[in-house]
Amino acid sequence: MTTSSRASQTTQGQSGPLWGRAAVRRNLNAYAFILPFMVLFVVFNIGPFFWALWLSLLRGDLVDQVKPFVGVQNYVSLTTDSITLKVFLNSLQYTVSVVPIAVVTALALAFLIGNKLVRFKDFYRAVVFFPLLASAAATAQIWSYILAPRYGVLTYLLGLLGVPEIYWLSDPDWALYGILLVEWWRGIGFHIILFLAAMLGVPEELREAARIDGANAWQVATRVTIPLMRPVILFSVVMGTIWAFQLFDTVFVLTNGGPVHATATIVWYIYNHAFRYGQVGMAAAMGVVLLLIIMPISYVQMKVLGER
Amino acid sequence: MTQIDLRRDWRRRLRLLPQAVVVYALLAILVIIMLGPYLYIFSSSFKETYTLISIPPQIIPEQLVWDNYTYILSELPFSLWFFNTILVAVLVTVGTVLIDALAAYAFAKKEFWGRDVLFGLMLATIMIPGALLLIPAFLITNWLGLLNSYGGLIIPALANVLGVFLLRQFMQTIPEELEHAARIDGCTDFGVFWRIILPLSAPALATLSIVVFTSQWNNLVWPLVVLNDKDLYTLPLGLALLRSEFQVNYGITSAAAFLSVVPLLIVFLFLQRYFLEGLTVGAVKG
Description:
The complex is a heterodimer of chains A (308) and B (286).
Chain A: H1 2-15, H2 21-55, H3 73-80, H4 82-114, H5 121-133, H6 136-146, H7 153-160, H8 175-200, H9 204-212, H10 217-228, H11 230-245, H12 249-254, H13 266-275, H14 280-307
Chain B: H1 3-44, H2 49-52, H3 67-74, H4 78-109, H5 115-124, H6 130-143, H7 150-154, H8 161-171, H9 176-184, H10 189-200, H11 202-218, H12 221-226, H13 235-245, H14 250-270, H15 272-279
């Protein structure tokens, strides 16, 4: 920020008044650089945003040329529709489960890898990154076999420990947790790597000082290291929450919302109402609701990015 | 090191041994959890149909067969999906990096009317969930006649706000003096951008490339709504289709899933640093 304001002062100083011919040329010149981006940005981001708001007030399917205006009817319908409630509860239940589980396990694993006894930390960093590389579709394929009943390898391994067979993806009581397991595996590396970087950035002197004051390992972790990692943990929680509320790919491939809507999420609802059921207005209204949920959370993300 | 030091060191190690055993045992479990699924589908991709459902499951199949690979390569347009994915990911990456770099240069180094307002607006759009934009973006793509085409996959993906953000931040750290020197030597504005700014931004360009390439390689939703023609499918979409058409043939899905991941695993091994940097841009996991 400081660099750019200093830069602009010098440029202005050289090229005269703000509204002179030179200034106009300088402006046009700058606009030429941002033009390609701005055209695409307006056509595929800003435009669609306002259009989506408008669509949420209409009724019709994707191909209808004329979509009648129905006002807030779609939003009213959302409150009376039984599927809507199920979808909200699923997304909420999923989010409040996956985020704490991911953050806490990632913190524990970051402490494990960050342990002074561990050599070749880069190796473990790479290992936890690996699942992040696969697409949700590939991950879903991998896990659908592992989670399969009877001949699935996880069922077998848990059976060795005496755990009865779980129908991870076909039991309505378990399906959301089956999805959670897959998404945990896919995303945990993100949190671990962030935490590890933050942890290794905490000055050793601070920990040493706490140890001299008689703190044990647990106290050093909870009273010194973790409090100093707080901004990163916050960022992690925010990103995890944003992703959790937008869960779609894994659900689409593994369960397609079933069984009996047990894994139907907000984005699954939007996709199906727009592209399967021909209810674009309902889908858009749900999208606006998602926006209202996500916005306060991503506001924090934006602030964090803005400060960097 | 004296005798006493050595003995002390040895004692210290002995004292830490139980802790080290626990730590490394836990790490071994972590490695198995993270890599196990990859290794398991790799081995399963060589299983015969009946060994796929044997109980207990065979971790390493007794008999290895190529049938699953020959099937997806000969009976399915898998190689076509592979080609489509590479083509789309490469073109989107090159296009995004260029378009974002041009814009980022102006935002980092130039003063123009509305600059800060525009930038704030761009940053604010980060808060909009992709699912909300999905329907109108589809309608616009349809209106432009780009449905079911490479263009429909590529063009809407080119304006990447996080990319402009990342590059602008990096470009701001490039000293003014270099630009001034180039200008004195007679460089035009575009010349400064092309010969000075772009080469010096190489690390940030590499990070952005990795982020965009990975997210395109793995993108499912947009190809899903834009494409009809199976010959235009990308890998994630093809994989999702396999799931619905070959519900029980895990040999085929394992082989396909494995092949779709391998290229990124290889790229990752060589360019790890940029993957790690890209992670904090918050765009790798889509």
